[in-house]
Amino acid sequence: MAVDVYHEGERAAQRRAGLLDQGGFSARAIRTEIPEVARKFLLQQPMLVLGAADTDGRLWATLLTGQPGFLHAEDAGTLTIDARPGVGDPLYERLRTPAPVGMLAIEPSRHRRMRLNGQAVPTEHGLHVKLDQVYSNCPKYIQKREHEWDLATAPGRPQRSGTLTSDQQRWIGGADTFFIATSDREGNADASHRGGNPGFIEVVSPTVLRWPDYVGNAMFNTLGNLEVNPRAGLLLPDWRTGAVLHLTGTARTDWDPENAAAVPGAERLVEFTVTDVIEIADAVPLRWSDAVSSRFNPPVLQRRDGS
């Protein structure tokens, strides 16, 4: 089995799920270079999700945008990004210096996504990333959306807090997509996508969220990282307005099958504890159409509180 690409946490998660063999099969998709077809895919994308730790070691996920071509591979082993987080973004200071990053290029209109992990260094116009891992992911749970640009707005002032407001709780409770940044014990970062029908994220309290982990590709990159490093960061975009909600905190996997059995489609559950919140209005100039839900989304049960 080609499991040598996995670290100890990923192997541990695969064992706990009983999918070590399947994870070994999936490992064949992981490369250190960008295939030619993927280089063309990257050239077409207007956004990139990026995850990294800040100067205090807290993990965050953020969204970089640009006209198609702002992502380009000068060679198969490097990615150049003609964008960098702006002032007020939780990763602004950290990415002014070299840093390990996890990245996700995702195309909602065609249900495609691609993960790239590596070491970033700042350039005059953005970032230059030496790649360690490159691989495509299964397209399940991506909601279809079309984008357009609104270049007349500028990012608002970041609103910071330690707990979620009632409006932010409603935002999360109605979301069909979020992105999560994690890292291994050595700080190698990863960014991933999670999707489902609105309501699949449960707001347990102003500081606790819970969501189902649906069947995937058995790599367990995110849950494997959480086995060795509980720090995590979430990004929730407002697809209509360009606002973003950044959360950082800690996450843990609930492996109890009885708890998972109570949630449709759940293989297991993940619980996230919020420590810091940053909301930025008009953070990005992209605007997206209403979603066409993925046919793979499991149903969401109505909770006792009616949500």
UniProtKB/TrEMBL annotation:
Every Pyridoxamine 5'-phosphate oxidase N-terminal domain range: 168-268
Lineage: superkingdom: Bacteria
Transmembrane segments: none
Protein name: Pyridoxamine 5'-phosphate oxidase family protein
InterPro entries cross-referenced by the UniProt entry: Pyridox_Oxase_N, Split_barrel_FMN-bd
Source organism (scientific name): Actinomadura geliboluensis
Stored Gene3D superfamilies: Electron Transport, Fmn-binding Protein, Chain A (2.30.110.10)
